[in-house]
Amino acid sequence: MKKALITEDPLFNKSKKQLSTKRAQEIIRGYVKKQGLKKNSPSLYNSEFLSSYYSPILAAMHRHYGSLKGKRMLEIGYRIPMFLDYLNSVGVTTVGIDIAPIFDGENLYKMDIENMPREFKEKYSHKFDVVFERLALSRLYDEMYVLEKGRLRFKNKKLILSNIAALLKPKGLLILQDDRGSIFTMDQLKKAGFEKAMRDAPIILKNKKGEYLGWNTLEVYRKV
Q1: Cβ neighbours of residue 21 under 8 Å, at least 6 residues apart?
Q2: Terminus-to-terminus CA distance in the chain, angstroms?
Q3: What does the angle CA 203 – CA 206 – CA 207 come to, to the nearest 5 degrees?
Q4: Strand partners for 173
């Protein structure tokens, strides 16, 4: 099991810098200016979106693999595929799924991880080195969704984990980044064939000015 990844970790800071490069900024500007995000949500999808919110996931990927070139990755709940575009730009093959995506495109699917079509599962069976999500699962499973919608969005955690395991290669990674904690217990993960790959640690999210943006939990599991 690898050591915990904390905010002060050099790898964490390196990942923030990678997601602040000209390449990353061009990806953000492409969505904000060319596709109308500036009008709809200017405060969220700004120049620091990737470096502020996706650097923990990128750091975890580097902690386990070093170079990401040639890897295959799936994001659950991509919403706007900025991070997937960045991964593509450094040699990663990516796929994204979302129940209510803002944008579509090649290798982007409108679907959910619980009710996964058989055709999708067969096409991508044991194809991915990493399956990851940022806030998607906890936000759609917790009590706030029930209060807003009157029902649970996801119902079967066992099926969700089974679907994820079916997509991962042997020894592939499941990375969960949430601000409300994982929806899965360790017992559920073990029964689905996962072991903990990195010690847990809270991640403090800050912008370039060092201003506090919140905290997330970062959990990394390996398919046994």
Answers
A1: none
A2: 13
A3: 150
A4: 130, 222
Instruction: With a cut of 60, say whether residue 25 has pLDDT above it.
Output: yes
Q: What is the rounded CA–CA span in Å between residue 80 and residue 63?
A: 25
Backbone angles phi, psi at 101, to 5 degrees: -70, 150
Residue 63, burial from CB neighbour count under 10 angstroms (0-12, 13-18, 19+): buried
Contact indicator for 198, 3 with CB cutoff of 8 Å: yes
Q: Which residues contact 77 (CB under 8 A, 6 or more apart)?
A: 97, 98, 99, 133, 134, 135, 136, 137, 140
- What would the pLDDT profile of 189-202 be if each residue is shown by its tens digit? 999 999 999 998 78
Q: Is 90 helix (H, G, I), strand (E, B) or coil?
A: coil
Tens digit of pLDDT for each residue in 42-70?
A: 455 677 889 989 999 999 999 999 999 99
Residues sharing a CB contact under 8 Å with residue 47, sequence separation 6 or more, in sequence order:
25, 28, 29
Q: Write down all domains in the chain, each with its CATH number in brackets.
A: 10-223 (3.40.50.150)
Query: What is the DSSP pairing of strand 93-98 with strand 108-110?
Result: parallel
pTM of the model: 0.91
Q: Measuring CA to CA, how many Å separate 30 from each of 37, 81, 178? A: 10, 11, 26
